[in-house]
Design a protein that fits this description.
mainly alpha; 2 domains; 6 helices; elongated; single chain; about 110 residues
Length: about 110
């Protein structure tokens, strides 16, 4: 930053902009956050602790249900609801489908 000020004060415009460009390339303005128990974490130490917990859980081979019981339970409920909505075809529907098979086979061969 001192070099930038020096170039600015000496009216060395080209050098000034070169230094500004260098600092822009090296400086990161992007802040990375991590989610932990519904809260966003921005502090570096807290993020490292959270990653440590995450990998510890992976290495201890906890099942998905032990790690996220609410999510697994909800998925299971959704799957059960989908299965309940499927009805068995009637005899008439099966007969109709069987009759349509030769037509479909002919279509596919052409």
């Amino acid at each position: 930053m001192d070099a930038i000020e020096k170039h600015y004060q000496n009216k060395e415009i080209q050098n000034f902009y070169q230094e500004v460009g260098k600092t822009r390339q090296t400086m990161s303005t992007r802040t990375v956050y991590c989610r932990s128990k519904g809260q966003l974490i921005g502090d570096t130490v807290e993020k490292l602790e959270r990653w440590s917990e995450y990998f510890e859980d992976l290495l201890n081979d906890k099942t998905e249900e032990e790690q996220h019981p609410k999510v697994v339970k909800t998925r299971r409920q959704e799957n059960n609801e989908k299965q309940e909505k499927i009805e068995e075809p009637t005899r008439q529907e099966v007969s109709k489908m069987i009759q349509e098979v030769p037509k479909k086979m002919e279509y596919l061969q052409n």
